[in-house]
Specification:
Blueprint (H helix, E strand, L loop, with lengths): L9 H27 L2 H23 L7 H7 L1 H14 L4 H21 L4 H26 L9 H20 L10 H28 L2
Helix pairs in contact: 1-2, 1-8, 2-4, 3-5, 4-5, 4-6, 5-6, 6-7, 7-8
Length: about 210
């Protein structure tokens, strides 16, 4: 049962700003979808809607909600949604294969988290890690190597690095094995709200550059 624990502090304010930034970006994804009807915008919107809802849950119920296996499962849709959007937009030849990978990952995380299976300590870092690498590497590759993405879109990769660090650190923490012995609960909870905000800002700047080029 969820315990109400409203965040009336700096973390709560930062999470609120993160949510408002996500709403701003969602509006632009929606406008582009209305014009182009592209599936990748649906995936992007899914990821950022879950980010928005996750932030609101943290504001109202505190960090303790992260221990819920249901919240962990739903939060997986953030990196999976964004990475699926990127694969559909920039690597269409591999989008079906990655969609199956994402589905298997979501089901594996849901099963191992809810059942408390020991493989949770493997499933969460693996699937979060792959999604994070795609979000980090693909925008940078398209922006600086093939140069078929607009300048500034590389900042999506910065957001990917931040979401990867945060997601993997949280995964190890939930599994009871703090990453590198440094990312303890106190340390993660001290940096998590600013990390989410900076991540969302990087995503917003990068995706707005891409949307503005259409």
């Amino acid at each position: 049962m969820l315990k109400f624990d409203l965040m009336l502090n700096l973390d709560g304010l930062i999470l609120l700003l993160t949510g408002l930034t996500a709403i701003y970006l969602l509006w632009y994804f929606y406008k582009r979808y209305q014009k182009e009807k592209a599936l990748y915008d649906i995936y992007y919107m899914m990821g950022f809607v879950v980010l928005l809802v996750s932030g609101l849950l943290l504001i109202f119920f505190g960090w303790g909600i992260l221990a819920s296996p249901y919240v962990l499962t739903v939060a997986t849709l953030i990196p999976l949604g964004i990475s699926m959007g990127l694969m559909n937009q920039f690597m269409p030849d591999y989008k079906k294969l990655y969609s199956w990978f994402a589905l298997v990952g979501l089901l594996a995380i849901a099963y191992t988290s809810i059942s408390g299976h020991s493989l949770k300590s493997v499933a969460v870092p693996v699937f979060h890690g792959v999604a994070g690498l795609i979000i980090f590497g693909l925008p940078l590759y398209k922006c600086f190597v093939t140069k078929d993405a607009v300048k500034g879109f590389g900042l999506v990769g910065v957001g990917g690095a931040l979401i990867g660090i945060g997601g993997i650190a949280l995964a190890f923490l939930v599994a009871g094995k703090p990453l590198l012995g440094i990312f303890t609960a106190d340390f993660i909870f001290a940096i998590l709200a600013p990390l989410l905000f900076l991540m969302t800002l990087a995503f917003t700047w990068g995706f707005r550059k891409d949307i503005g080029s259409d």
